Amino acid sequence: MTRILIVLCTFAVTATAAEDSWLKVKQLKTGVELRVYKKAAKQPVNAMFDEATDENLVVMIKNEQLAIPKDEIDRIDFRAPKSMARITKESRTVVKDQDTAAPRMPGSSPGPSTTTSSGVTFSGKGDFETVYRRMPSLK
User: Fold this and answer.
1) Euclidean distance between the first and final Cα of the chain, in Å?
2) Could you give the domains of the chain?
């Protein structure tokens, strides 16, 4: 009898953990990048999150909407949006005093010279994090 109670308690805890992680999937924002690992698939499905229901995960793949049944999903990873800007702009200005002893062009006056440069830096995307993992069935 005690063994049956332990198995039932373990099943209840496992089912609750799976439901809690599915609730996290439901709370993702539309447009979040996902990797969906389906049962017996060699490669994950790369998609954008649209919505999650109790039965399905609805994703966008190349402008097409696809519903993946929850019971076919082993794991879902998502890429957390970065809090920092992905594009960084920078500019630099250098002012140099011109040497008055240097030869000048006729009609020019000695004075400072200015050099300006600018650039853009693109930062990489964040790492994927697991948001859902199907719990193994107890048999």
Assistant:
1) 17
2) 28-98+123-139 (2.30.30.100)
Distances (CA, A) of 59 to 36, 55, 62: 10, 13, 10
Sequence-ordered list of residues with C-beta below 8 angstroms from that of 22, at least 6 positions apart, any chain: 52, 54, 70, 132
Enter the tokens of residue 44.
């994950």
Cβ neighbours around 80 below 10 Å, total: 13
Cα separation, 71 vs 9, in Å, equals 22
Q: Compute the distance between CA of residue 42 and CA of residue 51 in angstroms, rounded to an integer.
A: 24
> Model's pTM, two decimal places?
0.59
Distance CA 112, CA 11 (A): 79
Name residue 95's beta-bridge partners: 114
CB 90 within 8 A of CB 119: yes
Q: How far apart are CA 99 and CA 111, in angstroms?
A: 8
User: Tens of pLDDT along 25-70?
Assistant: 999 999 999 999 999 899 999 999 999 999 999 999 999 999 999 9
